[in-house]
Specification:
Layout lengths: L6 H14 L3 E4 H9 L6 E5 L3 H12 L2 E6 L4 E6 L2 E7 L7 H5 L10 E3 H6 L14 H7 L1 E2 L5 H5 L3 H12 L2 E2 L1 H10 L8 H13 L3 H10 L2 H5 L1 H4 L14 H17 L9 H8 L4 H11 L4 H4 L1 E3 L2 E3 L3 H15 L4 H13 L2 H12 L3 H11 L3 H13 L10 H25 L6 H6 L7 H14 L6 H13 L2
Parallel strand pairs: 2-5, 7-8
Antiparallel strand pairs: 1-2, 1-6, 3-4, 4-5, 9-10
Helix pairs in contact: 1-3, 8-10, 8-11, 10-16, 11-14, 14-16, 14-22, 16-19, 16-22, 18-19, 20-23, 21-23, 22-23
Length: 478
């Protein structure tokens, strides 16, 4: 398999190896991914001496960014355009590459090739690979195996990496590693939230997020990370649901993953547009978090009214819980806001479906949900579909998913033909017009202009003169 690193980068590394008299090895995930035929995220190098000087010199040579990761551990990162080179000295006093590899986390990461061999070999030759922990056998057998339990006490984040590797590769976690994960799961409390969030987002970005979450749950790691989810265990839901609150949240994640994979199977006429929406930024990750946490507020909202189970305002309570969770895990503001908004609005499509069934949906209602959801209107309906499919109780109304499809199609049509032209076109009435009508500036301006917007979407006027006449009439009754 040919490598894709530019000649300039390779020549700079080889020249620096000669200058410093250092042995340079390609190690860890780079070798693992190369052997699997997977594009490596970055180039991992182990350098026998002067690792930080080597990395700084490489950055100067390439006019790239130098990032010191850990001075004590002699690790640094060189970022050159789209290429990331991680440089590290031998670990923990290791005298050679074999000793260094045995101080790593998983057997499939305890692999190395001399840099010169890696860059010139067109095929992965097992005989050239340095493999003191028999990682090649585990790689071939698709097994995730920790080198020793000390790997977790040295860095408990490796616990999560086992699940990330499962999510990304489908490899199985071998029994000793599984037991060590259970035994040391509480050590995650000592790991920085940013590192935890990174691993969890990698899991959510994969095609096995649900399966990995189930494994996290079985290993009782999920309870360490998100005790809020456990509050829903044993909480019975109305007859439309077949699972308790906790299991329903997990089931929604399962359906969300399936919907994301083939959106046209669930919204047949919108498949292409939904695929385009999902390709943007980190929307897939946000949607999976929203699915997993969408009913987080139900335990606190639970009430029995006339022997009927209710969860009024669980969406609002859920947003508060997710905000606290996001703060704990140091989520970015954007991630926190986007997940929270989806959870805050997740009941809206169901309420609107009920209205539509009884008396139809107005343009005003379409405007309201459009403005509330913003660019995540498609995501809101994907979440509603996952939520609906995750509830399969005997008392569930028939045709709920079909109603969601019909509603989404109608909302989109109204938004395209009536809402967007109003929101993107010139304002027919402005604050200056209200001043000329004798109104005093204040909060009422926003309310009046909002009513003008709604009336225009409903087609009550089409030009400025008609709009001003409508305002005068409106003011005469208010």
């Amino acid at each position: 398999m040919q490598k894709k690193y530019p000649d300039r980068l390779c020549q700079a590394i080889q020249a620096l190896a000669a200058r410093y008299g250092a042995d340079v090895f390609v190690v860890g995930g780079t070798v693992r991914d190369w052997l699997r035929g997977v594009a490596a995220r970055d180039l991992d190098l182990a350098v026998s001496r002067s690792a930080l000087d080597f990395a700084e010199a490489l950055a100067r040579e390439l006019q790239a960014a130098f990032v010191l990761l850990d001075e004590e551990e002699q690790t640094a990162r060189v970022v050159w355009g789209d290429y990331v080179v991680d440089v590290a000295g031998f670990r923990g006093g290791a005298l050679d590459i074999r000793q260094d590899l045995l101080k790593r986390d998983f057997t499939m990461n305890a692999l190395a090739l001399p840099f010169s061999v890696y860059m010139t070999s067109a095929a992965a030759d097992r005989r050239l690979i340095i493999d003191p922990a028999d990682g090649l056998t585990d790689l071939q057998g698709e097994i995730i195996r920790l080198l020793a339990p000390e790997a977790l006490t040295d860095d408990p984040l490796r616990l999560l990496r086992a699940f990330r590797f499962f999510a990304e590769s489908g490899f199985g976690i071998e029994p000793h590693t599984w037991q060590w994960i259970i035994d040391y799961r509480q050590l995650l409390a000592a790991v920085s939230p940013e590192r935890i969030s990174y691993e969890l987002d990698c899991i959510m970005a994969s095609h096995r997020a649900f399966a990995a979450t189930v494994l996290l749950d079985r290993a009782e790691v999920l309870a360490v990370l998100f005790p809020e989810l456990g509050m829903g265990a044993g909480i019975t839901q109305p007859a439309s649901h077949h699972l308790d609150v906790r299991a329903h949240n997990l089931e929604a994640l399962r359906w969300m993953e399936r919907i994301i994979h083939r959106p046209a199977d669930f919204y047949p006429t919108q498949g292409e547009a939904l695929a385009k929406y999902l390709a943007g930024g980190k929307r897939i990750i946000w949607l999976k978090w929203a699915a997993l946490f969408h009913d987080l507020g139900k335990p606190a909202a639970l009430r029995l009214i006339d022997q009927r189970i209710t969860f009024h305002n669980h969406d609002r309570i859920g947003v508060e819980l997710v905000a606290a969770l996001a703060k704990r895990l140091r989520w970015s503001r954007e991630k926190s806001d986007r997940v929270s908004r989806l959870i805050a609005l997740h009941m809206w499509p169901f309420h609107l479906s009920n209205v539509r069934r009884k008396k139809g949906v107005t343009a005003r209602a379409c405007l309201k949900i459009y403005k509330a959801a913003g660019e995540d209107l498609p995501g809101l309906f994907l979440l509603a579909m996952a939520d609906s499919l995750a509830g399969q109780g005997a008392g569930k109304p028939e045709g709920m998913e079909e109603e969601l499809v019909a509603l989404y199609n109608q909302v989109l049509e109204v938004c395209i033909t009536q809402v967007e032209p109003v929101l993107t076109g010139p304002r027919l009435v402005t604050g200056s017009d209200l001043l000329e009508l004798g109104l005093e500036p204040g909060p009422a301006f926003k309310d009046i202009l909002g009513e003008v917007e709604k009336a225009q979407v409903e087609g009550k006027f089409n030009n400025r003169e008609q709009a001003l006449a409508w305002v005068r009439h409106f003011l005469s009754f208010h």
